[in-house]
């Protein structure tokens, strides 16, 4: 028989608490609409000390009006908040902690704030939960980090509270779902209140409060790379990647990280790639943001389809004019979705290729460097072998090195790294800075971005190490040493072994790939400037002011 | 400069084609509503030969009216369809292939149709793409398997085409998103057309055609386990799991597979678990369907929160009355979401525990057995270590066995298996049937469900093998042999090694866990029947007819 207790348990506490709080804000609300000047008052009754609060800080889109407003609440009334923020990008994200409004933080990425965040953790001002990959943090919103309140940004709302999130939908639906269906409170800042939305991205019944912000949400063009800045070393590495990885393994679906290395690859497809006869054979399906440097490859017919994590400022009109390539809505504009794109990038693609700042001799890498807690973003998710994958593609099967009836393929995880970073620091190090940062921050494990045992290929300006072919740790270190140039790791390496490593296919030098270093010229780039990208787009690409040099 | 081609490329082919097809069906449509008697005519103009078509076959919910209708189209008009079906559950799913309407299949799970599907592949009637885990198939819908048409099921629609998917939301939003934002056509069968929806789950602008089906969609109670059928062997194994895994590693968040083994665990928490003083320490956060056998644990205060892949027939009223535990909408009913729950189950939980039918000596396992291509469902996703995970929990850290500055934790993947299956077949085999099935079906790799190197623990009625602690393949096989009982694998095992294996913690026998086999009695179950579950629920649980034995 059921155990009976003296006081019967209530099962609707979250819902009752939500009603109580909304009632306290009711006098300021017209329907779901709140006047902007009441936002601080409203936050002070809609949020309670100790709450788990998601503040939408995407890679690009920031709920900037709500974050500024939250930083203005009284820390006497509201404190000990546990903040869940994908991307720590704005000063007030950390002001919350200095002002005593928040005390605990779980996050994924911290760009410009990476130095300050490390300091605040060391000083004990921030209690760090963990540094996640995006998909991991989203998952936890439905497990052990269910939010009490979410503060998000949308382009437009109608008077009922339906939302249009448009090209920058990103993670808004996921965050809202975590609160809307768990008795949490959903507060949305919008750029505009309108009578009729271009399309409905979020139904009104998922939304509690809408506030028209004083100015549009912050939006950064994070994925725009000016081709002018691509160096000939990067072009050489891009040529090696195309021949020694893409062509060799027949990579058909892929994600490119942010960075000039992969931009160079995008801009070589219509030139170098075309000459190699690879069009239609590689690089057909992409999971990535609408990179402007992908325009020439799209216009040349290389690309069948792109699914996007988020949007990119300036690419709106171009994307809208290419619905066969990009996912777009009935209104014609981009539909991005970070959760879905991360799932697609984990399970649906042959390859992840990205850059790193530091790599140790076991190929562990991290963008966390001395004193900077930059976080990881999507890299750990996409830069790992999804062991639940069961479908085969040519590239995935091509990485099989053993014979066994229960053998399986493997995702390509490729790291591009110049042997020396700007400032002359060697990229190959004895010990990742991340280990020391982890110790200082009292983290339970070191903040490694991608683990060496997940990395299948490393490309430097010296050559390619085919790590997936190595049989043991010693061979692995040898292959890495062979392409580590004049770094300490490279100088330790016994170069007399290189011929055997080349014969065994554990490394490839440019000459093994029929690449002459002297051919790696900027003239190979399909677009050499932002202006060229605009030309390629037929005038549809409209870069932000800061990329206009003319 | 841009490459110019003779004929300028069109970039709106999918959208134009969609308009063309919808125009051909226009005369039958009133707004978005189609009369049921016109469905076959409409499908014949809305679908074209060679299309990629998603047919919603969830674990539980089936778009049964649409699948029956599709099987009635003329194969002269429509053929060579590439079907994308999560769960092959209904005869007409395969009739499509026998009738020549469809030719290629990508799927995740095939329950009752597993025998026939294997035969059709062997006969060359079905060209098999791959057998996926759910999340993998969803990911591919946005990469290389973008659908032209999706056929889905919802509870209700309003006249504009807004949808209510209610407790069985499952994968409907994900499937619809893949088509609605890629110029695909979204066709929805609903049980009811109403003036006002209880809540909006899918906005009307994502939907093209709504048809009120002749009868409600098929819905199966797949996750209901009658406690009457739980055996004392299962209870013994459940006790071992609780002591030797849950308590030992402090498992706080978890997924339970479908099966009597894990139902037994659920029913022991309020009795055996309570006596061990574990309440509030383990099993707080769950990703699983609303299992009726979880009711006693919920009522006893063990469970903080459950996120669900799908619903469960009969649990609607109970779930609606427990919104602090379950994710529910503003209408009060369950919000399930298979994509989100699979992400949460991959990245957000400490442990996956499930059962299998066959296991080889390396701990590879599969539910694919001779002549049956059952597929995998969510098991490969949840039964694998997400190598992109970066947050630490006590259980995850507890599985670290090495010392290194770049060490990381590990997800618990626990397999429960009785040494002999029904019919006296040993569960431990020399070679998985899946290998032979793979060869017969010409699959590029054998359809292994969970790979041995991902399995951390195996529990039989003999004991627990702590595979994560083994240093090499030999030790791994030894630990498995020690708990393999009288199977050939167990008889080969040298029992004189067992004391050392126990001392090293590589295996635990019941006595090592202070469990007396004689204590494993049905009297330990918190509920011994469906009636008891109804009592625990205060009459809120309303089991389907077939589970009512009174």
UniProtKB/TrEMBL annotation, chains A, B:
One GO MF annotation is: acyltransferase activity
Keywords, alphabetical: Acyltransferase, Transferase
Entry keyword annotation includes Cytoplasm:
no
Q: Which domain of life is it from?
A: Bacteria
User: What Enzyme Commission number(s) does the record list for this chain?
Assistant: 2.3.1.187
Q: What is this protein called?
A: Acetyl-S-ACP:malonate ACP transferase
Organism, by scientific name, is: Paenibacillus solanacearum
List the top taxonomic levels of the source: Bacteria, Bacillati, Bacillota, Bacilli, Bacillales
């Amino acid at each position: 028989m059921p155990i009976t207790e003296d006081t019967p348990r209530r099962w609707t506490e979250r819902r009752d608490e939500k009603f109580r709080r909304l009632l306290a804000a009711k006098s300021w609300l017209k329907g779901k609409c709140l006047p902007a000047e009441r936002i601080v008052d409203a936050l002070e009754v809609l949020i309670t000390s100790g709450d788990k609060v998601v503040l939408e800080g995407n890679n690009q889109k920031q709920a900037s009006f709500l974050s500024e407003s939250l930083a203005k609440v009284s820390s006497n009334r509201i404190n000990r908040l546990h903040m869940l923020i994908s991307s720590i990008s704005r000063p007030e994200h950390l002001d919350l902690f200095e002002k005593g409004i928040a005390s605990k933080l779980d996050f994924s990425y911290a760009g410009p704030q990476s130095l300050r965040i490390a300091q605040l953790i060391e000083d004990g001002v921030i209690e760090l939960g963990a540094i996640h990959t995006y998909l991991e943090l989203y998952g936890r919103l439905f497990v052990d980090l269910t939010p009490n309140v979410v503060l998000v940004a949308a382009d437009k709302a109608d008077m009922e509270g339906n939302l249009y999130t448009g090209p920058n939908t990103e993670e808004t639906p996921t965050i809202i779902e975590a609160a809307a269906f768990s008795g949490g409170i959903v507060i949305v800042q919008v750029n505009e209140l309108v009578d009729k939305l271009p399309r409905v991205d979020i139904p009104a019944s998922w939304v509690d409060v809408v506030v028209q912000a004083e100015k549009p949400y912050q939006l950064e063009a994070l994925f725009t790379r000016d081709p002018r800045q691509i160096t000939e070393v990067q072009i050489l590495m891009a040529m090696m990647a195309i021949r020694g990885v893409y062509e060799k393994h027949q990579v058909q679906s892929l994600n490119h990280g942010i960075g000039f290395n992969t931009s160079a690859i995008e801009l070589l497809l219509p030139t170098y790639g075309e000459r190699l006869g690879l069009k239609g054979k590689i690089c057909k399906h992409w999971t990535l943001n609408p990179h402007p440097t992908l325009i020439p490859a799209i216009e040349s017919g290389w690309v069948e389809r792109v699914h996007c994590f988020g949007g990119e400022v300036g690419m709106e009109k171009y994307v809208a004019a290419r619905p066969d390539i990009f996912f777009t809505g009935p209104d014609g504009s981009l539909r991005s979705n970070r959760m879905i794109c991360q799932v697609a990038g984990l399970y649906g693609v042959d390859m992840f290729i990205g850059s790193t700042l530091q790599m140790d001799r076991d190929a562990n890498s991290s963008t966390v460097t001395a004193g900077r807690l930059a976080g990881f973003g999507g890299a750990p998710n996409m830069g790992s072998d999804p062991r639940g994958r069961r479908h085969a593609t040519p590239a995935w099967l091509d990485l099989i090195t053993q014979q066994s009836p229960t053998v399986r393929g493997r995702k390509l995880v490729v790291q591009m790294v110049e042997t020396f970073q700007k400032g002359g620091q060697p990229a190959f190090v004895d010990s990742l800075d991340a280990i020391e940062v982890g110790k200082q921050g009292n983290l339970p494990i070191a903040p490694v971005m991608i683990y060496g045992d997940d990395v299948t290929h490393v490309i430097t300006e010296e050559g390619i190490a085919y790590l997936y072919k190595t049989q043991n740790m010693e061979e692995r270190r040898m292959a890495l040493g062979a392409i580590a140039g004049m770094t300490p790791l490279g100088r330790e390496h016994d170069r007399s072994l290189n011929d055997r490593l080349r014969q065994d296919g554990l490394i490839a030098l440019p000459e093994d790939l029929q690449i002459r270093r002297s051919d790696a010229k900027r003239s190979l780039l399909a677009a050499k400037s932002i202006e060229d990208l605009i030309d390629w787009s037929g005038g549809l690409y409209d870069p932000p002011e800061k990329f206009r040099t003319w």
